[in-house]
Design goal:
Layout lengths: L1 E3 L5 H13 L7 E3 L26 H10 L7 H13 L13 H23 L3 E5 L5 E6 L7 H11 L4 E5 L4 E5 L2 E5 L12 H13 L7 H7 L2 H4 L8 H17 L12 H7 L17 H9 L24 E5 L4 H6 L6 H12 L7 E5 L6 E4 L2 E4 L4 H18 L3 E5 H9 L5 H4 L1 E3 L7 E5 L2 H5 L4 H16 L6
Parallel strand pairs: 1-2, 4-5, 8-9, 8-12, 12-14
Antiparallel strand pairs: 3-4, 5-6, 6-7, 10-11, 13-14
Helix pairs in contact: 2-4, 3-4, 4-5, 10-14, 14-15
The structure holds uracil.
Length: about 475
């Protein structure tokens, strides 16, 4: 039997595993052990044999091992070496694809737990200011208690975001320090050295209180997303029981008083303006006043005009300049938009961005929104599958869309797909028949009707997809043409 020190990180383990592989030591003959773990003999760091052999392993294995190696499971090094051996010496080229293989299943699970904890660390580390350096850089500290050895893997995120200050993250599993633009790691510390409450805590508490929306409280989900063991290190966590209790009261109050003035009236003045076909809205002599987008956004967030709000994370309001020359209207937010609160940031949004760039249309200067502001979905296993909004939901949301149109007053309006067309042009208008420029001067001087990017994403045949994509780009380019 050979006792081997796996080292402190992925690079150390890789070096040791490589030496073992070169010396043809089978996994069953290796005991992986960190020094000081009570072995009789003490594990040795392996010296590489003279003249190195070269092995090829799939990049996917490197990724898997890089994450799984951070797990606290003491069998992880042996597990990864066994997989490596099977790939290289056992000729099991497709091993990684066999998800039912016990080694692969276990390694994937470890890697998943580690990725999850890195994500938690990004979300739950709270820095406290402790002063300034002599050079005038602000100095912050934080404490985090991970289950796994994620400090090194999670730290680049903080370096990229907080590059202009000096900070240290202390943890029992290792400490990271960003000082004078240099990242350093030191061994873990057993107890929190920065237990010194300061005003930063109060800022976090205030911030947390202000973003807390009782109607969105899903206590179970909150506990699983923000596990209780992390609470003690979050300054705002002491507010959680109080907020949960008061949220129940506030939600009850909302139910007793369901409308709170946010349900758009059926005879909504924007709708009336549209029906009268006067430009831009209203009776043609006095244009309707423009409600600032920030106010509209707040109202939409509280809208209860149809049931979609109940299952959505938030209302996704439009984004872009209030005086944009171009307004783009999609259907409804998708899964990612619902989580991030912004329109067209998921796969359809990325596809749209690509086409807009090709059409030389600048998305940043456009106002982008949707006909329906809440995500309609149905569960399919762990996924939330998009469901088309119904006529009633499109109608319920239409006053908000018209209000956005009235405020922005774009010269050019692009309608993406049937729902946007049905909302603003009526259900009789079909993309297949009326695609291209349509005459609707009550909406904007130039109105372009085209397909929705999700439709293009679903076309299976690559040649047809490309052809349709080029048509889509040509439609979008109409926005730049004069007249
Ligand atoms: N599809 C839409 O219509 N809108 C979005 O915001 C995202 C996907």
């Amino acid at each position: 039997m050979k006792q081997v020190d796996p080292g402190r990180n992925f690079a150390d383990w890789r070096e040791a595993a490589r030496s073992l592989l070169e010396s043809e030591v089978p996994p069953a003959e290796v005991i992986w052990e960190r020094p000081g773990q009570g072995s009789l003999f003490g594990a040795a760091a392996l010296a590489p044999p003279p003249g190195r052999a070269s092995f090829k392993v799939p990049a996917e294995f490197v990724e898997l091992a890089r994450s799984a190696i951070c797990h606290a499971d003491p069998r992880r090094w042996a597990l990864l070496y066994r997989i490596l051996w099977r790939l290289v010496k056992g000729g099991e080229k497709h091993l990684l694809e066999i998800v039912s293989d016990p080694d692969i299943a276990r390694a994937r699970l470890l890697a998943k737990n580690v990725r999850r904890e890195i994500h938690k660390m990004h979300a739950f580390v709270r820095f406290r200011k402790i002063g300034e350096t002599d050079a005038g850089r602000e100095r912050y500290v934080a404490w985090f208690e991970p289950d796994h050895e994620v400090i090194a893997a999670a730290t680049p995120f903080f370096r990229d975001r907080f590059a202009n200050m000096d900070w240290s993250i202390f943890s029992p599993k290792g400490c990271a320090h960003w000082i004078d633009n240099e990242l350093k790691f030191t061994p873990g510390v057993a107890t929190n050295p920065c237990d010194n409450p300061d005003e930063l805590e109060e800022i976090w508490r205030t911030y947390y209180r202000s973003i807390f929306n009782p109607a969105r409280l899903k206590e179970q989900m909150m506990k699983s997303e923000m596990p209780k063991r992390y609470w003690k290190n979050l300054p705002e966590a002491s507010l959680i029981p109080e907020l949960i209790e008061s949220s129940c009261r506030r939600v009850d109050d909302m139910l007793v008083e369901p409308e709170r003035g946010v349900r758009p009236a059926p005879n909504n003045r924007y709708l009336k303006g549209l029906q009268e076909m006067s430009a831009p809205f209203g009776d043609g002599t006095a244009p309707l006043e423009r409600t600032p987008l920030a106010d509209l956004s707040r109202m939409v967030d509280a809208c209860r005009a149809c049931p979609l709000w109940e299952r959505a994370t938030c209302a996704v309001f439009g984004r872009g300049p209030e005086n944009a020359r171009l307004m783009i209207v999609g259907e409804q937010p998708g899964d990612q938009e619902d989580l991030r609160g912004q329109p067209f940031v998921g796969p359809a949004g990325q596809f749209l961005d690509r086409a807009l760039a090709e059409a030389k249309v600048d998305r940043a200067s456009a106002y982008v929104t949707n006909a329906v502001k809440h995500f309609k979905w149905e569960p399919r296993g762990k996924l939330r599958l998009h469901k088309n909004p119904g006529r009633a939901e499109v109608e319920a949301c239409k006053p908000w869309l018209l209000a956005e149109l009235n405020t922005v007053g774009p010269a050019v309006l692009i309608l993406l797909g049937g729902t946007a067309a049905a909302s603003l042009l009526g259900p009789q208008v079909k993309v297949t028949q009326h695609r291209g420029l349509v005459a609707a001067p009550h909406l904007a001087a130039k109105v372009i009707l085209t397909v929705h990017p999700s439709y293009l994403l679903r076309i299976p045949d690559p040649a047809r997809k490309e052809e349709e994509y080029q048509r889509f780009v040509a439609d979008l380019s109409l926005a730049c043409e004069p007249g």
